[in-house]
Amino acid sequence: MTNTSESDGDAPRVPVVCPDCDTTSRVPLSDVADAVERHNDQLHDGDDVAEVDPDVADRIADLVATELGLLEDGD
Hints:
Layout: E1 13-18, E2 23-28, H1 32-43, E3 51-52, H2 54-67
Antiparallel strand pairs: 1-2, 1-3
């Protein structure tokens, strides 16, 4: 898994996990998609093994749904 560089400053970092490699890395939010794709391409023949920590992904999805009003009743 790719580690972050000092040039990333104070960018929010997202935990990315790979159960097959037994690794966890924190990647700047803006680099998550590329880092996951690169890891999976290089180490897992492109299979979707590494991913954003599922607990974090679920929490982000809940926050976005709330912000967009998708969880409100239609009454």
